[in-house]
Amino acid sequence: SQLLKIKDLTCRYDNEDIIAGLSLTLNEGDIGCLLGPSGCGKSTILRAIAGFHPVSEGSISLQDSVISSSSKSIAPEKRPVGMVFQDYALFPHMTIAQNVGYGLHKLPSQKRKRKVLEMLELVNLSDLANRYPHELSGGQQQRVSLARAMAPEPSLILLDEPFSNLDVELRKRLSLDIRDILKSLNMTAILVTHDQHEAFAMCDQIGVIKDGIIQQWDSPYNLYHEP
Ligand code: ADP
Ligand code: ADP
After folding, report:
1. Under 8 Å CB-to-CB from 98, ≥6 apart: which residues?
2. Is the CB of residue 224 below 6 angstroms from any atom belonging to ligand 1?
3. Ligand minimally distant from the alpha carbon of residue 118
4. Residue 197: which H helix or E strand, with range?
5. How far is it, in rounded angstroms, from Cα 22 to Cα 4?
6. Which pTM does this prediction carry?
7. Longest dimension (CA), the chain
8. Residue nearest to atom 15 of ligand 1 (CA)
9. pLDDT tens for residues 39-89?
10. Ligand 1 neighbourhood includes 112 CB (under 6 angstroms)
11. Closest Cα to residue 156, out of 24, 16, 55?
12. CA-to-CA distance for 60 and 48, rounded, in angstroms?
């Protein structure tokens, strides 16, 4: 079933349309990808979905309810959306476990602890629960970041160039790992990247962003077999 629906989305900076009438839909459990060169507006779309960038025209809906339009905007913290960033954005003064537990303040402490352990196991970092971010490699920090984003059980995960700071080999391995982790939870996600190989390896739907819209929104198979 359809989880995310973006309809005729327009986003502006200083009266300039960065996104200009973009539409897409994403089914539950699918990993979508926004592909395009730096500056084409990929992050702006993610920020609009997360509620950090205003929508000038059109709408964004999650599970059939509008979360953003020109007249309505649900507060970012109320959206069932988790984010993973290129620079990991972990809290340096918190342990790995505390980072993963950060979004779980509403859970009673036993449940929170159980959830944190479960997430650490899922990303294969149980042994590092009491370490600090600076003691971990880039790939490990990115897995912590994913665990933290998934812990509150959001409906949608947004991944903004998550592998850009990693070397090529690690990138390949981690992108497949992360695909497996997302799939194991039937998590719906959108990946933003400028790397075509990454897009094809990880995603079920790929859209190329050009001139503020998606030129095509299709499976890797169909894109590859385009004449
Ligand atoms: P991408 O993620 O594809 O690199 P962005 O969404 O970050 O692209 O940026 C899209 C365009 O919006 C770029 O031309 C960028 O210069 C512009 N832009 C981004 N942030 C701002 C801002 N805070 N103020 C004005 N223009 C911005
Ligand atoms: P609190 O006192 O609010 O429980 P803590 O600083 O002990 O805060 O930990 C923050 C979060 O990380 C909490 O969700 C806690 O349950 C979790 N946590 C801390 N250390 C561990 C650990 N070693 N294993 C699993 N969860 C942990």
Report:
1. 91
2. no
3. 2
4. helix 196-202
5. 13
6. 0.90
7. 56
8. 39
9. 999 999 999 999 999 999 999 999 999 999 999 999 999 999 999 999 999
10. no
11. 24
12. 8
